[in-house]
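Tutorial, part two.
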Amino acid sequence: MPGPSELDITPKLFSRQLRSFNEDEMLLIGVNRSPFTRRVAITLKIYDMPFEQRPLSGFGNRDDVRASNPLGRIPALVLDDGETLVDSNAIIDHLDEVYGRHRALTPVSGRDRRAVQKAVALMMGVCEKGLQAAYERNHHPPDKLHQPWIDDCMAQMTNALCTIDAMIEQGSPYLLLRRLTQADVTAFVAERLARGLGVDTAARMPRLRELAMRLAEEDAFRSTEP
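Running the prediction step on this input gives:
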């Protein structure tokens, strides 16, 4: 019998094939090793939304992932009515609107919204540059590595992480606004990735590292550890 990659099926039909539990739950597609997937998983947990997760990799399960996202990228979120959302920013925007409401992790307007979005943009950039550096290291033959490109990616990561570190008020439990926001979620996954790539965040970004350690004790963050 042909597998999903051999069938001409829509994302909605594919999402139905993947389901095996509660049809009323959302389905998150992606592995939490991806910082983009993990930030969605953390957000769903914070909003206390039940969901099922399929740990598919954009590399190891490319055909299956493309059935939900033509780009073959994770995450994708299949809503309980079968509609599929792609890209972590678009997914989180929907979650804020529908489930966050008055407690949305991104403020709805004004200076506070801009401040959170700026921090998120910087940390998303860290994740993108980190994954580019990792791809260069892990998927090119040693004699084909372009070390200047890796060095530039790591420098951009470090500069952005230091900028975020400087934003954190000494003794504050959160990055901005004295409450948990999407800035914290994205900074958490970015710091985790940076450490995995060898950045000494404890020495170079001590306030960010302390923030990440505190957040790691909260259930939404702890329960999504890869």
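The chain has a mean pLDDT of 88. In part three we will examine how such features are distributed along the chain.
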